[in-house]
Design goal:
The chain has 227 residues and is of the alpha/beta class. It is built from 7 helices and 10 strands. Helix 4 packs across helix 5 and helix 5 runs parallel beside helix 6. This is Cell division ATP-binding protein FtsE.
């Protein structure tokens, strides 16, 4: 297994037919925590969508969790996504199911057959994000921060090699953002690789890590003090 979990070489990213990023070259090692920043429309989300194969890679070379993005077939995408946990800005919890049933739905859909094994896995991931006591609540009974913790737990269900967090604090107030960021940092310290897109520079200052910026169709590393 390679020490690199993600490698892009001379990649150009398109949103429909519009070029949004060009000449992207990037390597992420296992265990890294990487921020991707930039204004709305700068290409952050398009880059993330390319990484989890929502947008095809049509120019350049790219590998992620040992999948070749340029040669990826439609039938390969579910297997790629089992190795990647994805956290979105808007939680995407099913409103008519309890937290437990939201997570159980994902496990059943990804091939977990045994009821007891699923229950154990759900207990374990909810415990990691401090939400074990909330398992039988409905999403509307939780605060935004609690819902995002559940979304992080959902991303951990299949023990992914990489977590992609696309603006995970975008809908949260500053204090809740710090709490959710603390959860992500703890998960990273326990060995998970995390790539997080954000426009929240205050969080980056509070939790410094390697930072790349999307600007003028390019992606480049920024020194912390110039963020």
């Amino acid at each position: 297994m390679s020490d690199s979990i993600l490698e892009l070489k001379n990649v150009t990213i398109y949103q429909e037919k519009n070029m949004v990023l060009q000449n992207v070259s990037l390597e992420v090692k296992r265990g890294d925590f990487l921020y991707i920043i930039g204004k709305t429309g700068s290409g952050k989300s398009s880059l993330m969508k390319t990484l989890y194969a929502d947008l095809p890679l049509t120019e350049g070379e790219g590998t992620i969790v040992d999948f070749d993005l340029a040669k990826l077939k439609e039938s390969d995408i579910p297997y790629l996504r089992r190795k990647i946990g994805i956290v979105f800005q808007d939680f995407k919890l099913l409103p008519d199911r309890s937290i437990f049933d939201n997570l159980d739905f994902v496990l059943k859909a990804t091939g977990w057959k045994e009821t007891e094994e699923r229950k154990h896995q759900i207990d374990e991931v909810l415990d990691k994000v401090g939400m074990k006591s909330m398992a039988f609540k409905m999403p509307h009974q939780l605060s935004g921060g609690e819902q995002q913790r559940v979304a992080i737990a959902r991303a951990l269900l299949n023990n992914p090699e990489l977590i992609l967090a696309d603006e995970p604090t975008g809908n949260l107030d500053p204090q809740t953002s710090v709490e959710v960021m603390g959860v992500l940092k703890k998960i990273n310290e326990n060995g998970k690789t995390i790539i997080m897109s954000t426009h929240d520079y205050a969080l980056i200052m509070k939790f410094p890590s390697k930072t790349l910026k999307c600007e003028d169709s390019t992606l480049f590393e920024v020194v912390q003090r110039t963020v």
